[in-house]
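User: I've been trying to design a sequence by hand for this structure and keep getting stuck. Would you show me what you'd pick, starting by listing the structure so we're on the same page?

Assistant: Good idea, let's start from the same input. This is the structure you sent:
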């Protein structure tokens, strides 16, 4: 019998949009319906590269901007063999941030083009579905104070949001915009439905290559 592959599903959005909560709820719902589903998140702070990134985000160390961008990308590439293995085993991967966060955050810094930022991530496993949790920056700010990590200021988040809007113009990626200003359950219902649809479609197709 032909083994049916899992789907690669990514959640993106600005801070406070509810990505992490929704990833957890989606994995739980898929598991409840009998699928093998697992959560992943980037940056993955558990690896050696991830620890360098974590210390940078916590402002315990400084890294040059190009360097940290490449580390974020390397942190994805180091997980690629495992991701491919899991997808081939039929496991659905629900991923909290991916290359799109990589590009949106670095290109929000002065002097970084989208194109330069996209380059190191070209060829990563292409998500079957990328859901962007849309929340306007004012509403995000109303959900509470920003944290103390790097990038957690409203001015920077506004620019990040603009960069995501530019990335969403790219029709080679299967973007779906989700209104994240609703209740957790309403948002979850949409995410679950879109995910179930893509899981059936993806199983008959090979995993693609991002931005190639
Ligand atoms: P969280 O761990 O709270 O999601 O914050 N980031 C993330 C980048 O700058 N580049 C990337 O490639 C990725 C995946 C977004 C992580 C912070 O790191 C930023 C917020």
């Amino acid at each position: 019998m032909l083994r049916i592959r899992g789907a690669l599903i990514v959640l993106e959005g600005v801070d406070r949009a509810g990505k992490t909560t929704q990833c957890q709820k989606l994995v739980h719902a898929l598991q409840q319906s009998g699928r093998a589903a697992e959560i992943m998140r980037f940056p993955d702070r558990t690896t050696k590269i991830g620890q360098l990134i974590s210390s940078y985000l916590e402002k315990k160390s400084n890294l040059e901007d190009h360097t940290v961008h490449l580390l974020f990308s390397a942190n994805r590439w180091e997980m690629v063999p495992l991701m491919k293995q899991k997808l081939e085993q039929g496991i659905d991967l629900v991923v909290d941030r991916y290359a799109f966060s990589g590009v949106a955050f670095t290109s929000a810094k002065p002097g970084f083009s989208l194109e330069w930022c996209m380059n190191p991530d070209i060829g990563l496993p292409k998500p079957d579905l990328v859901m962007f949790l849309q929340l306007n920056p004012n509403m995000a700010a109303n959900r509470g104070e920003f944290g103390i990590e790097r990038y957690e200021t409203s001015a920077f988040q506004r620019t990040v949001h603009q960069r995501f809007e530019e990335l969403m113009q790219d029709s080679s990626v299967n973007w779906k915009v989700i209104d994240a200003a609703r209740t957790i359950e309403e948002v979850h219902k949409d995410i679950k439905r879109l995910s179930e649809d893509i899981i059936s479609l993806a199983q008959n197709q090979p995993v693609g290559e991002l931005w190639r």
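That's my pick for every position. To get oriented when you compare it with your attempt: The mean pLDDT is 96. The CA atoms of residues 133 and 182 lie 11 Å apart.
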